[in-house]
């Protein structure tokens, strides 16, 4: 039942189980109360008072989070019902159906408590879902009352069909709710002249975008990118530019967002912001983040960004300047990430960087531990160097900036925290530094400098010791390639056993030998 999933809020699963239980406790106990009270209010006066308390306690953003948590519980319960149904656990199926019924009532009541403008379509869907849940509960109750296997078998297909319909109505309702909330927030952004109201609406929109790609698609479809770029073109909202650009970067992780950005000349607006020296560093950094997002090599739908090529040199000039003048590691990371992505985006980018003296600026930044302070920043720098190293002119720039020493140091990159993301970044740094050395070592001067800095022993160590490279095959392949290049330029730097095992055989044979290295020592 694919419609049972709720991708926009599935990230909630990835939390500590006790924390998950604590968060869900209120929702679960509400559900049990509703089972007992059969959804009947105790008194009208009490309900009105509760409504006032609820609406004053939570903001729109909090209410949406509550709704998404409730929706996640319902989605999970529906999936579990399908699993129990497969095993013919009718008692469990019925009790879980009753629970889902109560959760659906609670979710709809909670939403109607904090919303003030439900559409007719919304009311119809709510009624369809409630009626179908009631029918589902009655159906499973009837299944409990018979023990005839044949009858149960015939009823099972009907129960499955009803479950699928409940899941479809539920998915449609959530989609409609989220669309309506996005519309309300965008209406506030477009119509409000108040700085406070606009800021609050953008903040809520950003929170909504953080819920995943599906929410970003809804926001983009409803005109979110258009509305946010309108803000970025009004001087009276200058203080909101960083927050607005951060929201745009989140929305533009999906194809619909990038299409909308192209339609409203978003690239030109970003170029204007980046080149306007009157803007704050925070604004420039967030504009760089949008550029990094829309040029990400992981996206497969950037080919239509024709306007980017028209403004590329101007944007890259501003980004190099931002790297040079960055006051913090975060600012440098955003600017360098944008530059790194652009070097994948178009081959002219590397030539532009050479003209801008970017190699010298990046190498100088790496010597400042306050600016280049994480493996993530070094990953961006070495990515740029690796892509630039295909140009012959790059070798002299690297040597002049003491870049060979930097590449050698990067071969020793290790994660200090054990964090998986950081460990992966360290692997990328090792791999790309080896790739850069292999490419640059076609120049005898670079190869000579690498040999003098003892790059060959380090490359051999990375090949022979899986733990040194965090068991990464991509690092191994890059190191073997770099080692073979340096061996051609300086054959005396290798012992005979290293030459026979790591250089002389085919690359694939050396690779297989090194991947089994741990076993050979046992």
Write the layout of secondary structure elements.
Layout: H1 17-37, H2 44-57, H3 60-86, H4 90-114, H5 120-144, H6 149-191, H7 195-209, H8 213-221, H9 224-231, H10 241-251, H11 255-263, H12 266-275, H13 281-294, H14 306-325, H15 329-345, H16 348-355, H17 358-366, H18 375-388, H19 394-400, H20 403-410, H21 420-440, H22 444-452, H23 455-464, H24 473-489, H25 496-503, H26 507-515, H27 517-520
Helix pairs in contact: 1-4, 3-4, 3-6, 4-5, 5-6, 6-7, 6-9, 7-10, 8-11, 9-10, 10-13, 12-13, 12-14, 13-15, 14-15, 15-18, 18-21, 20-21, 21-24, 23-24, 24-26
Organism: Ploceus nigricollis
GO molecular function: cytoskeletal anchor activity
Domain Protein inscuteable homologue LGN-binding: 13-57
């Amino acid at each position: 039942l694919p419609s049972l999933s709720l991708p926009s809020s599935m990230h909630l699963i990835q939390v500590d189980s006790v924390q998950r239980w604590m968060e869900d406790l209120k929702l679960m106990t509400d559900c049990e109360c509703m089972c007992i009270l059969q959804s009947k209010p105790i008194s009208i006066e009490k309900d009105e008072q509760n409504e006032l308390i609820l609406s004053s306690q939570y903001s729109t953003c909090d209410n949406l989070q509550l709704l998404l948590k409730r929706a996640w519980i319902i989605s999970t319960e529906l999936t579990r019902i399908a699993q129990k149904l497969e095993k013919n656990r009718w008692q469990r199926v019925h009790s879980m159906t009753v629970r889902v019924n109560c959760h659906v009532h609670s979710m709809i009541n909670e939403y109607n408590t904090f919303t003030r403008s439900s559409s007719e379509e919304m009311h119809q869907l709510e009624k369809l879902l409630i009626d179908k849940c009631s029918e589902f509960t009655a159906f499973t109750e009837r299944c409990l009352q018979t023990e005839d296997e044949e009858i149960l078998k015939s009823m099972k297909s009907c129960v499955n069909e009803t479950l699928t319909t409940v899941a479809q109505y539920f998915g449609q309702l959530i989609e409609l709710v989220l669309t309506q909330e996005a519309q309300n927030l965008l209406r506030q952004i477009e119509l409000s002249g108040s700085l406070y109201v606009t800021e609050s609406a953008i903040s809520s929109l950003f929170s909504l975008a953080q819920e995943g790609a599906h929410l970003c698609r809804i926001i983009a479809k409803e005109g979110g990118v258009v509305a946010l770029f309108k803000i970025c073109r009004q001087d009276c909202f200058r203080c909101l530019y960083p927050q607005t650009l951060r929201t745009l970067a989140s929305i533009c992780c999906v194809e619909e967002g990038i299409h909308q950005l192209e339609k409203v000349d978003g690239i030109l607006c970003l170029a204007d912001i980046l080149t306007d020296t009157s803007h704050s560093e925070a604004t420039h950094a967030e504009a760089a983040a949008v550029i990094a997002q829309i040029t990400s090599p992981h996206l497969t739908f950037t080919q239509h960004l024709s306007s980017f090529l028209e403004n590329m040199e101007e944007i890259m000039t501003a980004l190099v300047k931002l790297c040079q003048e960055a006051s913090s590691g975060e600012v440098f990371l955003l600017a360098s990430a944008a530059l790194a992505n652009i070097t994948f985006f178009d081959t002219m980018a590397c030539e532009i960087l050479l003209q801008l003296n970017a190699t010298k600026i990046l190498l100088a930044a790496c010597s400042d531990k306050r600016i280049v302070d994480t493996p993530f920043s070094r990953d961006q720098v070495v990515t740029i160097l690796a892509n630039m190293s295909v140009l012959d002119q790059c070798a002299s720039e690297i040597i002049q900036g003491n870049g060979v020493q930097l590449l050698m140091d990067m071969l020793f990159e290790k994660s200090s925290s054990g964090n998986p993301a950081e460990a992966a970044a360290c692997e990328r740094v090792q791999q790309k530094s080896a790739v850069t050395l292999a490419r640059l070592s076609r120049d005898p001067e670079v190869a000579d400098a690498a040999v003098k800095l003892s790059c060959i022993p380090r490359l051999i160590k990375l090949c022979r010791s899986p733990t040194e490279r965090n068991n990464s095959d991509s690092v191994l392949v890059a190191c073997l390639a770099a080692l073979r290049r340096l061996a051609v330029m300086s054959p005396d730097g290798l012992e005979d056993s290293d030459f026979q095992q790591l250089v002389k055989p085919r690359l694939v044979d050396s690779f297989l030998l090194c991947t089994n290295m741990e076993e050979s020592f046992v």
